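step=predict obj=DMSO/TMAO reductase YedYZ molybdopterin-dependent catalytic subunit n=199
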Amino acid sequence: MNLITRGFHGRRGGDPTRVPPGQYETHDFPVLTVGPTPRVDTATWTFTVTTETGARHQWTWNEFMALPQERPHVDIHCVTRWSRLDTDWVGVCLDTLLEDVETTADYALAHCYGGYTTNLPLQDLTDGQAWIAHTFDGEPLAPEHGGPARLIVPHLYFWKSAKWVKGLTLLPDDEPGFWEQAGYHDYGDPWREQRYRGD
């Protein structure tokens, strides 16, 4: 099972105000995945928000692309200890997608094509902190990096920024996702080095 693409090179350390403890800065974009890369056609892609009551809010690719688009310029941090600064994305803010969703949920479980899931507190997806991104560095997001669309939550370790995202289920209680069930930290704050359960 290949978890990481070898051959990328980083510079140890970096700006301590932007590179969290235990991380090094890289200018590459390493590919980390488990299993085959899903190939998702935008003609059949949908994004669905399902509330704790079962209410569904769904967008096709064309409907999603017609929503207001934002251009987050953010630093990203992988649990495998690389950080890449000043990344540029285009996508839809989660605030836009959740604007008309009635919920009292405290948590969300992201679902992806290929079966991957990851859990997040709902408050970490709102107030301009998270996006569903379809473009990276001016180009459509490549499948190996989660295209056609991935979740971007830059203030958490990058496994929380689920690739090939297809929806969110809003939940009253926390429900660990794929890596969390395998022993990764439930929250994943890079500044607190929350890599694994117990950190």
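step=describe
The chain has a mean pLDDT of 92.
step=end
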